[in-house]
Amino acid sequence: MASDHYFSATPASPENLRRIRVTLAGRDVEVTTAGGVFSPDHVDSGTAVLLANTPPPPPGGHLLDLGSGWGPIALSLAIESPRSTVWAVDVNERALDLVRRNADALGLPNVNAVLPGDVPADVTFRTIRSNPPIRVGKNELHGLLERWIPRLDERSDAWLVVQRNLGSDSLQRWLAATLDKGYTVTRAATGRGFRVLKVRRHGSPATEAIPLPGSV
């Protein structure tokens, strides 16, 4: 089973469904997890750092959890922003099934758990939250971020949590060098050996003001 990773599309390992109790968006809840997905026994440290160091989500619009796993980020967004549409995106079919089960059990009809290709091309996001799959490799990770971060709405933010010893600082430099001048990349928080990176997409450049007569 060494080749069976949590980012496998169809994990070959036994499902081994289990129920665990966690706190999401201030609520103590019981969720279903399984083998073959990321961190099946608890909310992992990186996700916990991300959830503790990001602002409340926008009250509406489309929100994205990129690399959802069994759904701690997506479920938290849906609890905090019930009028939004939360897209939980993952390549792992088992993980997506768990997100659907958990959203249904918690009464969260605003969660869409889908494969990347199933998000309509015209959907843009008022926020992106992600504990990205660093271990897929640098090229895959960069391609993932180049695909999704440009789908931020103007004046909106992406929040990424990355372990310091797995390249958070180099990823921050790469993002700053790769994204165009309409974005800024900053380190928003640190904790438990993780960095929370904030990627801000700014508005369209303002039309240059024409000075009024006598003002110059």
What tags apply to this protein structure?
disordered C terminus, 5 helices, two-stranded antiparallel sheet, 24% helix, 216 residues
SSE blueprint and pairings:
Layout: E1 18-24, E2 27-33, H1 45-52, E3 62-66, H2 72-80, E4 85-89, H3 93-105, E5 111-114, E6 125-130, H4 138-148, E7 152-163, H5 168-178, E8 183-191, E9 194-201
Parallel strand pairs: 3-4, 3-6, 4-5, 6-7
Antiparallel strand pairs: 1-2, 7-9, 8-9
Question: How would you characterize this protein structure?
Answer:
This protein is an alpha/beta fold and 216 residues long. The protein contains 5 helices and 9 strands. The strands form 2 sheets. The chain has a 7-stranded mixed β-sheet with strand order 5-4-3-6-7-9-8, with helices on both faces. It has a two-stranded antiparallel ribbon with strand order 1-2. Strand 6 (125-130), helix 4 (138-148) and strand 7 (152-163) form a beta-alpha-beta unit.
